[in-house]
């Protein structure tokens, strides 16, 4: 037998009104052409819940208990790079079999979504400490000061090698948590090096570096590109040149030229 059609809310309300007026179950059934058992069920439901509107149904039994969900979330938070398939295998090893879709829904419900890992330079503790000190020492500088700073550095661009993408499970706003980033280092096969500079007003020169750059090569790059870049960027007569503490940058010959 096919599933019968659910009665409308208006018809259910009429059943309740007739019952309140003192009409019997059989009389209501005969008058409205509704099975007596259905009339009885609707009246009982109204007495218990105070409504004739269909209540939410329990639906299919959950595949994962609340405890299992919490364990799944802890697993992913402790291993952000774990894949959905690996999560399924780990749960199956513990006797719980779920689909990849179920794992995805649970993680989304807890605010965890698969995102590309952000690439950040690999920093040692001394690097972090030095950068934090630099930021603290310059917190009081206004926009006028920063408009007069010319920044420079070298970088290697890999032509072959580490171009793979890594996905991690994370919440919104956690992109640069160290657990969710992919450390990068400045070396690898098939790369090309550039020196460049920029200021708040735009980018300066970009110079290709041939071979291994020594202090003499770095000095020549500065001599040919630094002041022309400052003029093009409109830094005026007084400006600050900012570089890092690479041995080439802090060499005696470079310092002497910069201090002239």
From TrEMBL:
Would you say which domain of life the source belongs to?
A: Eukaryota
One Pfam family from the record: HTH_SB
Q: Using the record's annotation, list all stretches that form the Transposase Tc1-like domain.
A: 70-140
Q: Which residues form the Sleeping Beauty transposase HTH domain?
A: 1-52
* Listed transmembrane segments: none
- Which GO terms are recorded in the biological process aspect for this UniProt protein? DNA integration; DNA transposition
SUPFAM superfamilies per UniProt? Homeodomain-like
Q: Which InterPro entries match?
A: Homeodomain-like_sf, HTH_SB, RNaseH_sf, Transposase_5, Transposase_Tc1-like, WH-like_DNA-bd_sf
Name the Gene3D superfamilies on file: Ribonuclease H-like superfamily/Ribonuclease H (3.30.420.10), Winged helix-like DNA-binding domain superfamily/Winged helix DNA-binding domain (1.10.10.10)
GO molecular-function term, one example from the UniProt record = DNA binding
Protein's recorded name: Uncharacterized protein
- Native organism: Xiphophorus maculatus (Southern platyfish)
């Amino acid at each position: 037998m096919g599933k019968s059609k659910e009665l409308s809310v208006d018809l259910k309300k009429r059943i309740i009104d007739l019952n309140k007026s003192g009409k019997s179950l059989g009389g209501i059934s005969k008058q409205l052409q509704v099975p007596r058992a259905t009339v009885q069920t609707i009246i009982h439901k109204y007495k218990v819940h105070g409504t004739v509107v269909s209540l939410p149904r329990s639906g299919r039994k959950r595949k994962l208990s609340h405890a299992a969900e919490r364990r799944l979330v802890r697993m992913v938070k402790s291993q952000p790079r774990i894949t959905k398939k690996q999560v399924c295998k780990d749960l199956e090893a513990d006797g719980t079999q779920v689909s990849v879709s179920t794992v995805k829904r649970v993680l989304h419900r807890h605010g965890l979504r698969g995102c590309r890992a952000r690439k950040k330079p690999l920093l040692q503790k001394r690097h972090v400490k030095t950068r934090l000190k630099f930021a603290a020492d310059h917190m009081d500088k206004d926009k006028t000061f920063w408009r007069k700073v010319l920044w420079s550095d070298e970088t290697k661009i890999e032509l072959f090698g580490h171009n793979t993408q890594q996905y991690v499970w994370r919440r919104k706003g956690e992109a640069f948590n160290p657990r969710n980033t992919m450390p990068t280092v400045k070396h690898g096969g098939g790369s090309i090096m550039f020196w460049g500079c920029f200021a708040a007003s735009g980018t300066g020169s970009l110079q290709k570096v041939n071979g291994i750059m020594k202090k003499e090569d770095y000095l020549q790059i500065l001599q040919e590109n630094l002041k022309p870049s400052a003029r093009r960027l409109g830094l005026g007569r007084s400006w600050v040149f900012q570089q890092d503490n690479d041995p080439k940058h802090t060499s005696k010959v470079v310092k002497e030229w910069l201090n002239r």
